Amino acid sequence: MVTPADLAIKDLGPCRHPSPVAEKLGEKATVYVGEADKVLFDDRLSAVLADASGARPPAFELAGPRNRVFWDPKEVRAGIVTCGGLCPGVNNVIRGLVLTMAQSYGVPEIFGFRYGYEGLVARFGHAPMRLDPRSVEEIHRMGGTVLGTSRGNQDPHQMVDTLEALGINVLFVVGGDGTIRGAMSLVRAIEERRLSIGVVGVPKTIDNDIKFIDRSFGFESAFAAAVDVIRSAHVEASGAKNGIGLVKLMGRHSGFIACAAALASADVDVVLIPEVHAELDGPCGLLAHLERRLARHGNAVIVVAEGAMQEHCTSSAEPMATDLSGNLKLKDIGLFLRDRINAHFRARGVEATLKYLDPSYHIRSVPASPSDSVYCWNMARNAVHAAMAGNTEMLIGRWHGRFVHVPMPMAVRMRKQVDPTDDLWMAVVEATGQPLSFC
Amino acid sequence: MVTPADLAIKDLGPCRHPSPVAEKLGEKATVYVGEADKVLFDDRLSAVLADASGARPPAFELAGPRNRVFWDPKEVRAGIVTCGGLCPGVNNVIRGLVLTMAQSYGVPEIFGFRYGYEGLVARFGHAPMRLDPRSVEEIHRMGGTVLGTSRGNQDPHQMVDTLEALGINVLFVVGGDGTIRGAMSLVRAIEERRLSIGVVGVPKTIDNDIKFIDRSFGFESAFAAAVDVIRSAHVEASGAKNGIGLVKLMGRHSGFIACAAALASADVDVVLIPEVHAELDGPCGLLAHLERRLARHGNAVIVVAEGAMQEHCTSSAEPMATDLSGNLKLKDIGLFLRDRINAHFRARGVEATLKYLDPSYHIRSVPASPSDSVYCWNMARNAVHAAMAGNTEMLIGRWHGRFVHVPMPMAVRMRKQVDPTDDLWMAVVEATGQPLSFC
Amino acid sequence: MVTPADLAIKDLGPCRHPSPVAEKLGEKATVYVGEADKVLFDDRLSAVLADASGARPPAFELAGPRNRVFWDPKEVRAGIVTCGGLCPGVNNVIRGLVLTMAQSYGVPEIFGFRYGYEGLVARFGHAPMRLDPRSVEEIHRMGGTVLGTSRGNQDPHQMVDTLEALGINVLFVVGGDGTIRGAMSLVRAIEERRLSIGVVGVPKTIDNDIKFIDRSFGFESAFAAAVDVIRSAHVEASGAKNGIGLVKLMGRHSGFIACAAALASADVDVVLIPEVHAELDGPCGLLAHLERRLARHGNAVIVVAEGAMQEHCTSSAEPMATDLSGNLKLKDIGLFLRDRINAHFRARGVEATLKYLDPSYHIRSVPASPSDSVYCWNMARNAVHAAMAGNTEMLIGRWHGRFVHVPMPMAVRMRKQVDPTDDLWMAVVEATGQPLSFC
Amino acid sequence: MVTPADLAIKDLGPCRHPSPVAEKLGEKATVYVGEADKVLFDDRLSAVLADASGARPPAFELAGPRNRVFWDPKEVRAGIVTCGGLCPGVNNVIRGLVLTMAQSYGVPEIFGFRYGYEGLVARFGHAPMRLDPRSVEEIHRMGGTVLGTSRGNQDPHQMVDTLEALGINVLFVVGGDGTIRGAMSLVRAIEERRLSIGVVGVPKTIDNDIKFIDRSFGFESAFAAAVDVIRSAHVEASGAKNGIGLVKLMGRHSGFIACAAALASADVDVVLIPEVHAELDGPCGLLAHLERRLARHGNAVIVVAEGAMQEHCTSSAEPMATDLSGNLKLKDIGLFLRDRINAHFRARGVEATLKYLDPSYHIRSVPASPSDSVYCWNMARNAVHAAMAGNTEMLIGRWHGRFVHVPMPMAVRMRKQVDPTDDLWMAVVEATGQPLSFC
């Protein structure tokens, strides 16, 4: 259950300064966001009627520029850090943060920390980069992050040491689940020292699996890149007798990329995602389904999310390891399926040709699509507006088509996943023609 | 003011048949949409609190498959017609309609009417095409519409004649504002004859200017194509001393494409849209602003929506003509600006080089992007689900991130426009650095 | 040494028929190719002067339409077969063969054999497809081959059985080195039965390693696709501290794709090809060079052709296996280098992050680029003109910018390779800055 | 007639210095180009036999690095100037010139002159840019020219003043026909002052119409961009009853882009080029042909080169004007045809829908394709090698697949055009199915 308190945003204090944005644009030019501008957590009619007790239903604070700001912009020294794996659009976000701070607010000093949270720990020796409008002007044309990145969190106290040493009072953190947890520890450490440093997040997840973000930045660019690879798998599968194209896509816990890429490409016959259990053997298993498909159509394209079917390739005897970000190290379901499918058809005496494609790094490194470029610009703008208003321990979310403020603890409370009883999976089943179970 | 009654969807009667979709997928597999599944018209907290009178706030019916359907699928003879200008994704919509009808419901006969509403009028002599899964399998790889299109409405009674003659009981209409009005006349004529024929719309507007559609299909593909053209304008402008790139984009009444393309490209200095008045002459006019920009930066890129600044290029003496769709014929603001800017700099003795790009047909004809492909699939699926449930005189909308049913009269009541005091225009102003007025 | 005799083209007899092409276009419209239209094998001045003995220097027969043809077009029954791995443009070639035969010559019957040479052997049970202009109209928009393909040769006598049974008198073979050898055996078998069946080749090699083909079709499309992948490797390498991007590209015996992709991308620091020996260990080895590069620049991108450095990953104890096409099965130099580089930096206590990309199937499956589309059209046209003139056991080549006829035995006599003392490798060395040996 | 003397390259004197390239790469590593390395002007066997008189046939000097160079690289002060209209790849050429000079030869100072020849004339006040490897590293990712450009020549004496003032001894000129003539005047002026300044050209012509350049840089990128536009025209034409897509492409005097784009797109029904006369009216005219085509197929796509059919839209009464580059100002054949076709069908009472696309600026501004990127790199490298060897008044050409040195007077002696009796036009006629005359 979500209560109104869960959605309350922390701030560093009242907004004492007139906003330079408001000064530039005039009082009437823009509707500044006020106290009552909140978005209902659940906007179905039934939800509101149920709550007709008179209690205020939970609602998110709307993102956007405020009439008054907490910080005197001339005294802001901002920092930006990018963490975790690459994702299309990170450079667009960096660019948007810098341009909005410099041009809309007149923030004089902006530092880019290098190689993720390592850049905030002195002993790694990564000197921060100075960022200004000129240095970020063209960076969105390339994928990746000009700041570099690394996985894993660092000691929050050492990170605060660096922030204090440089006089940083606003820090933007671009990262996923683990990075947000790291930012929450950092806020704890800041509060322990009674410092006034705002920490604002721009959520990054190529898997689109963070709650309260209708769509994460880079997600559309990623599945668009996947469509090209699926087309290649389809072409390879069509070119051989009993040709099978097997494509492994991102998706550790959530199958959004696999689903969206399959819907967009229209060339996929089977989609395997972590949220939907699938048998491998037996008459209701993938292998038997594949055999029937080849017999009828002569070829097949399978898309598997990296987190799917893990129960088939792990053994209870062997506990799963974790990586630097604390993520469980998954078994490689792509190689596993490749080998099992090949073995199956060899055993059945059927000549089949499987081509396996694993385009992960290629997809993560593409530049942001035009649509993601717009989206990143708005994420970045709103993150700056939120930070200037003195908010902290929050991130920019997207709820029912509007940018909102999401408390960090809410964002990491649970993961967004494909609901196998809901619309997206239904669309996939209708589009691929795959049965709900392989029977 | 919108009342609950405004959002009520017409249907042809109660749903008497079990749904084949439900039979295939099982009762529990999917959450079928029920009576209470509506989406609040306004999901801001303040709106709901204000309406705490006990009255039900207005809410849209959720789109999606129903447990029971109105039509016996085996008796459905469906028609599809595409109207108006080209827009990326029309072929994807046709494909999605045909595949969902044939594969999810087992509809046996589907006709594609040729060249818009002309195809429904016998005297034009356009024989309809038979459509089945095989004939539409690959059509989404190309832009345009395999059915052809035309502008303008036709006599509704002659259209009903054709529907009756062919025994069509479900008609899907893909088109914009004018097309929807045509469909409403058609529904009148059907009702006059007391026929049971459902008319369901898939709203098409490359300008993204239909209300209750967060984002129209093809819109993202269109502004993505525009970004390439703007980059060319930027390259041309940078290559010449006092280089000016002028790009005319679609947008008769609404500047959404101009705004989105400018945000996505990051190369634009001035955006001109119908919703925002701009002076041409005088110290606060575009020409003076342009001169200042060239003096400081040496080049400039201008994006102008086709409906912008019409007051500058029309005279009250000469009343505006209308085209076959009943749209006012706009003056060509692109050529007008090209000539006025050239004349201005000539008069001022400043050597400037203006390159004018008008990519309209190129943009309209691109294939749907991966993201639009997913979106078109969902628009089409939900249109079939709505039609099978017996609904009529409605279209598929998208409200706060969910697919909903929108009564046709609501959809054409007013046009969606860029609000110059709201977030999108604010984002453009921050991104381009252009002043609110050219002063 | 090449003698004029080596370049003589076999034909099936004198050209008895007026050409329908000539009839359509008129005598003067086109310069028909005559006896004296040959292209010098070596067009350097020194070569011709050296041969001023009066002997005719070796010269290739020019490709193109003849005034008279050997076959009566109305009696031609043609076959097309595509063999070996996928390569961009195969569908364009099929399309060009069919359209030129049907439209320029009026050939009435064209068969497409399925799945390579298997399709010519009855026991595999692959029925041939009928091909006509309508069925091939759109196939060039997709990569791959609509006929399917397989590796390896088949028994020539069983293949002739099929040709005789179907009454085929002209066979087009699209394939590489091994396929051409197969076609030569087929010609032997045809001659033994004293049949009049022409066999004309369209050489296909994504590696661009067939002699007398300045540039093979699909090669430009392939290295263009590789450029995208290299950019991703560059982005990944730049995003991490001591980031290394390692890309394995095609090139079993010849490094043309690796060289061209490196030159085109401008993001590559080291290129490894089969023709140039490279040490791995020691002060003049790749590993030491890489370490120096990381110390100076912080990241590196390596492109390795699949056939490079095989001496490092094979042992004399273990003889190399061969695949169905008779090609030696190479060791996977990509995985080998990945592991050796990782081990090296681990042993040196240097934290480095290597990302490995192996895009082979993706690259092979892309559609032909516009430039390759033109090229494929010309290869196909000229193959038809050559076949209609009664030539056999020959293929279409490209020599010094002109299409020529190449005897099959000449084409397989040796392989085209990058000459480490010549211009291409020099251009790579200048572009990457890599030393001639890693010292 | 071309004589050996015509192909002799001017140089500034003997090569007195060892080449740093040779020093770096070692004597044996690369085959340095020697005196005898020339390419026969005509490599057809018949040509050589005819010349068996013992006379040396004309031959081009091969491009490439020399063992010894004329200039002491440390004393070279180089300049680069780009002139005329934009063309894909100019930035790649600039980058290649700078990198090869700086990295292969160690040239210490390189100036980029701004806005074409204007940048060499003091009174325009365009300060030159300093160029070094860092400043050009990323410029190839964008189209256009970072130096800017302008049309037209300037007074050669004023240009030499600037070269002398800056101490430039090597000047690279990137431009077309008119620019090369300007460079020849510049060489005259240099010679009059008895200065030792080398002038080396990199020929730029998006129309591919300079002699002795098999293929000009940017040409492939240009027609590839045109293919996209033609596809849009095809989609528009297919979407309307009697739909006509009309695309105007570059090609003032030569139809190479129109031909190549038509061959590559496979969607074109009529190609109109300057080299082939076409009637407009009458039974053998374009209009009658178009009417027959619509009656049979329902739609048509026409590609017209800008210089085609000029005789139809000019009158002898009105003499043609010239632009700054001295080019005749062509009448707009695109608008002319659009209006004449529309008028024709209106007069005939046939409802037809014509969509006109004029993508010129868009095509000129695209970045170089991967294949052009390789080509530009080689053009630039070889220009530097030629300049360092002391050559002057020459440009880099491409003859029979090899880079060669072409004397400037030879290059402008005549224009390269499509030969209507030769292979390219034949390929177009076969591909489009258009008749040789519209009868």
From TrEMBL, chains A, B, C, D:
Where Mg(2+) is bound, by residue?
A: D177
State the InterPro entries in the record.
ATP_PFK (IPR022953), PFKA (IPR050929), Phosphofructokinase_dom (IPR000023), PKF_sf (IPR035966), PyroP-dep_PFK_TP0108 (IPR012004)
Tree of life domain = Bacteria
Which residues are substrate-binding? T205, I206, D207, M250, G251, R252, E306, Y361, H362, I363, R364
Which positions bind ATP? G85, R151, G152, G176, D177, G178, T179
**Where does this protein act, in terms of pathway?**
Carbohydrate degradation; glycolysis; D-glyceraldehyde 3-phosphate and glycerone phosphate from D-glucose: step 3/4
Q: Which residue numbers delimit the Phosphofructokinase domain?
A: 77-386
Q: Which Pfam families match?
A: PFK
Can the keyword ATP-binding be found in this entry's annotation?
yes
Report the catalytic activity: beta-D-fructose 6-phosphate + ATP = beta-D-fructose 1,6-bisphosphate + ADP + H(+); beta-D-fructose 6-phosphate + diphosphate = beta-D-fructose 1,6-bisphosphate + phosphate + H(+)
- Which co-factor is required? Mg(2+)
| This protein's GO CC annotations | cytoplasm
Q: Which UniProt keywords apply?
A: ATP-binding, Cytoplasm, Glycolysis, Kinase, Magnesium, Metal-binding, Nucleotide-binding, Transferase
Which residue positions are annotated as catalytic? D207 (proton acceptor)
What is the similarity comment for this entry? Belongs to the phosphofructokinase type A (PFKA) family. PPi-dependent PFK group II subfamily. Atypical ATP-dependent clade 'X' sub-subfamily.
On assembly, the entry states: Homodimer.
Physiological role: Catalyzes the phosphorylation of D-fructose 6-phosphate to fructose 1,6-bisphosphate by ATP, the first committing step of glycolysis.
Q: What is this protein called?
A: ATP-dependent 6-phosphofructokinase
Instruction: List the source organism.
Output: Sorangium cellulosum (strain So ce56) (Polyangium cellulosum (strain So ce56))
What does UniProt list as this organism's lineage?
Bacteria, Pseudomonadati, Myxococcota, Polyangia, Polyangiales
